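Holo model, 4-nitrophenyl phosphate. Inputs:
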Amino acid sequence: MATMTGSPSNSSPVSVLFVCLGNICRSPMAEGVFRHMTKHDLPGANPVIKSVDSCGTGAYHEGESPDPRTMAVLKDHGITSDYYMHAARKFNYSDFVDFDFIFAMDDANYMYLEEARKRLIKKGELTEATAGKVMLFGTYGKKGKEEVIDPYYGGRNGFEIAYDQMVRFSAGFLKQLEARNKE
Ligand code: 4NP
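Output:
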């Protein structure tokens, strides 16, 4: 089970950022699933969540809508573009301050974020206390370390696998967050 050491220790609502490479396939899917599961910005919204967003470590697709295969898989599971809209954007260093939990989809995304975080702390531009916690989202998966494989160059099946992972990881994270808030 993932540890929440270093995360906000009281029951204040948290902000969550999902990060992949292009911000058109995996992280928008994670964002759509997570928003749906927490009813974010809707009546009956889960009070433990303050804000939800996604971005990419690369800027290749800046401003673009999510990949049609991401939206099709979300739609097949009842998550529609009426409810969830997104324009791709690149990760910004200010995201370390704006988000409590920064979830990387794979090891490469994780390394990018963790190295940037360490570098900024070393330069004195961030502190351990103010910087969001960087984690592999698949920390909440099987064996505590599951990457979401980039489905961009494959078929629809890769997007279905990613969807299943997003649901499992989101449920694991929310369960732990809610348990923490009851302490
Ligand atoms: P994502 O997938 O990181 O899940 O959004 C990708 C989308 C586009 C590219 C790579 C990965 N690309 O190289 O353009």
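Residues 20-26, 56, 60, 150, 152 surround 4-nitrophenyl phosphate (CB under 6 Å). The longest strand covers residues 49-56.
Archived with the compound record.
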